[in-house]
Amino acid sequence: AIGRITMKRLEEKGYPRDYACALVASGACTGILIPPSIAYIIIGLVLGISSSTLFQAAFVPGVMILGTVMITNAIMNRIRGYEHSTGRFSLKRWLSALNHAKWALLIPFIILGGIYSGIFTPTESAAVACVYAFLVTMFIYRDYKWSELPLLVGRVVRTVGMVMIMIGFSVAFGYMMAIMQVPAKVTAFFLTIADDKYTLLFLINILLLVLGTFMDLAPMLLICTPIFLPVVTMFGIDPVHFGIIMILNLGIGLLTPPVGPTLVVGCAIGKVTMEAVSKSIMIFYIPMLIVLVLVTYIPALTLWLPSVLLGK
Questions:
Q1: Element (H, E) at 215
Q2: Burial classification of residue 117, based on how many CB atoms lie within 10 Å of its CB (0-12 exposed, 13-18 middle, 19 or more buried)
Q3: How far apart, in whole angstroms, are the C-alpha atoms of residue 69 and residue 75?
Q4: What whole-number distance in Å separates Cα of residue 252 and Cα of residue 29?
Q5: CA 55 to CA 33: how far, in whole Å?
Q6: CA 11 to centroid of chain Cα atoms
C-alpha cells in the first residue's frame, strides 16, 4: 500500500511511471541492506557470527547505499526536470511534507522497537507493519475506499503469488546448482587464477552478481556462504567483512531481472512492464556498484563501527 501511494505521489510530482517504479524499488532494496534484516540473521548463523555484530557492520554500507540512491535521483531530477513547480528548497515545505508523512514514517520505529524490545520477531514485525500500513492507508490517508478492498486484496494475492512462484523456481534452481556443485567448481577455478585477495574478491563479486539474477537471497546465502568462507578465510579476509559483501551483492540481485523479486513487486504495483522499468532502473545500478566496490576494497567501512562499539 505504501509503495503504491509513493508511486502515486511521484507521478503527481511529474515523474514518469516507469522511473517512479524504479526509484521506489531501489529504495525498497535498501531494506535488505539496513539492519535489522532477516538476511543478516541467516548469514550470521552460517558464519557463526552474532547478528548484532553484522547489524553494526552493515550500518555504514546501508546508509551509503541509501544516500547514493537519493543523490542519483536528485541528479536525474535536475537533468530531466521531473518535478515541476517545486521551486527551491524550503524548510517550511519540507516540514509540511514531513508532517504529512509522519504516520508512514512511524513504521521503522514500530518494527525496530518491537524487535529490540523482544515484543515480536523480525518475521512477526513484517505482519505488524502490514497491519499498521493498512490501517494508516484506510483510516488516516484514506487513499482507497472500503468498496475497493476486494480489488486490493486481489492485487495483493496476484502479486504475492507471482513472486512466490518465481522464488519457488529460484529455490529449485539453487537446489540443482548445489547438486551439480557449480559454486564449488567455480570457486576451485577462482583459486587457480586468483593470486591475492583483491582478485579473489573481484571474482566472487562477479559470480554473486550473476547468480543473484537467477537465485533468491536465502538459497544463495545457504549454498554459497559455506563454500566461500574457507576460501576467503585462507586469504585473510574477515568473515564479518565478507558477510556484508555477500548481502550487498544479493541486495543488488533483488533488482536484476529475470528474477528480481523486488523489481517484480514494483512492476506489479506500478502496473509497468518489466522491460520499461529495467531501462529506468539501470541508472541506480551505478551508485550501488560504486558502494559495492568501496565496501569490498575498504574493509574499514564495515569493520570500523563494530570495533568502536565493541571497544576493540
A1: none
A2: exposed
A3: 10
A4: 7
A5: 9
A6: 23
Within 8 A by CB and 6+ apart from 239, the residues are 47, 48, 49, 229, 232, 233
CA 231 to chain CA centroid, Å, is 26
Question: Rounded to an integer, what distance in angstroms lies between the CA atom of residue 270 and that of residue 267?
Answer: 5
What would the grid cell of residue 210 be?
550473476
The three three-digit cell numbers of residue 54, written as one number: 553484522
| CA separation for the pair 208, 205 (Å, rounded) | 5
- Which three cell numbers mark 167? 522464488
HSE value, Cβ hemisphere, 13 Å, CA-based, for 232: 23
Neighbours of 84 (CB within 10 A): 9
Instruction: Note down pLDDT in tens along the chain; length 312 residues.
Output: 556 667 777 777 778 888 888 888 887 777 777 766 778 877 887 788 877 788 888 888 888 988 898 899 888 888 887 765 555 667 777 788 778 778 877 887 887 778 767 787 767 877 888 888 888 888 887 777 888 888 878 877 876 776 677 667 766 766 777 788 776 777 777 778 878 888 889 988 988 888 877 777 777 787 788 778 888 888 888 999 999 999 898 888 888 877 777 777 777 777 788 788 888 888 888 889 999 999 999 999 998 888 887 655
Longest CA–CA span in the chain (Å) reads: 64
Q: Are residues 54 and 35 in contact, defined by beta-carbon separation less than 8 angstroms?
A: yes
| Whether the bond into 261 is cis, omega within 30 of 0 | no
Nearest to 125, CA basis, from 105, 135, 108, 111? 111
Q: How many CB atoms lie within 10 A of CB 34?
A: 18
Contact between 281 and 25 under an 8 Å Cβ cutoff? The reply is yes
Distance CA 58, CA 49 (A): 13
Exposed e or buried b per residue across 60-69, where buried means at least 16 C-beta atoms within 10 angstroms of its C-beta: bbbebbbebb
